[in-house]
From TrEMBL:
Gene Ontology terms for molecular function: DNA binding
Domain (SpoVT-AbrB) ranges: 7-52
Name recorded for this polypeptide: Antitoxin ChpS
Signal sequence, start to end: none
Species whose genome carries this gene: Candidatus Pantoea floridensis
């Protein structure tokens, strides 16, 4: 457990999050966070973050660089054409 204090900065109340806790959460400076309050508790989570294993196939495929895949396929294709077919030479 880490202790921290609220402080005033202009018209806002600021909460400092210890670096090790931010790092464990995968947070970095400048990241946008969603803050919600219920009674005496707050919940903080990254905006637009999808939990691991919860992405759709479309979301996964959208992150693929098509040009990089094409270049990789061309490089592998060239290597396969140079190898003899059938049993490999010993």
């Amino acid at each position: 457990m880490a202790l921290t204090k609220l402080r005033q900065q202009g018209g806002a109340v600021v909460l400092t999050i210890p670096s090790d806790i931010a790092a464990r959460a995968g947070w970095h400076v400048g990241m946008e966070l969603d803050v919600t309050a219920t009674d005496e508790s707050i919940n903080i989570k990254p905006v637009n973050r999808v939990a691991r294993g919860r992405k759709t196939l479309d979301q996964l495929l959208a992150g693929i660089d098509q040009d990089e895949i094409r270049q990789f396929n061309e490089a592998v294709s060239d290597d396969l054409q140079d190898k003899p077919q059938g049993k490999e030479a010993i």
